[in-house]
Amino acid sequence: MTEHISFPTFEAAFPPSDLRVEFDWLALRQGMEDGIADITIDHVTTWDPTKLYAPWYHDGHRQAMRYDEEGAQPWRYDQLLGQPMMQVPGHFLSEEIIARHDAVFKDAKILSHDVGEERHLVLDGNHRLILRLGFLAARQIVLPHYQIHAPLNPPLVPDVKHFT
Predict the structure, then answer these.
(1) CA dihedral sign of residues 27, 31, 33, 38
(2) Of all residues in the chain, what percent carry a pLDDT higher than 70?
(3) What is the pTM of this model?
(4) What share of the chain has pLDDT > 90, as a percent?
(5) Range with the largest mean pLDDT of 45-49, 54-58, 83-87, 147-151
(6) Which of 10, 30, 118, 153 is most buried (CB neighbours < 10 A)?
(7) What would the 3-class secondary structure string for the chain be?
């Protein structure tokens, strides 16, 4: 069941200091006040990794690069899931993390920006979602999925330029 949430509820769930991506908080708040942006939450067990994108970029030949470099392409989750564990950007997925997956998911939540065509740029929770999809795929783990629905231009996140 999809639930619409307010900006203060969103901000409490994802404090500005916790997000590592560049994000225009004021534009989101204004967009919600103007009725052109919305935030929803669903509780999800099934994900399509071909429709999920991480805020990490490569040159088309699997060499890492910045989002703002010429030719940068966002990693799709199905591409990341084929990587050896320690080659996932951020090097977060250690054997220890996988072994204690219940603790990792206790308060986990996923934040994405709807970028059209049922695609989502995952803004927060990337490592947990990769762990869920790649290493714990057989487990029924429910993750709250917060989705930002807003125009891509002007962008709330500079990364959306790769989807317009």
Answers:
(1) negative
(2) 85
(3) 0.87
(4) 64
(5) 147-151
(6) 10
(7) CCEECCHHHHHHHCCHHHCCCCCCHHHHHHHHHHCCCEEEEEEECCCCCCCEEEEEEECCCCCEECCCCCCCEEEEHHHHHCCCHHHCCCCCCCHHHHHCHHHHHCCCCEEEEEEECCEEEEEECHHHHHHHHHHCCCCCCCEEEEEEECCCCCCCCHHHHHHC
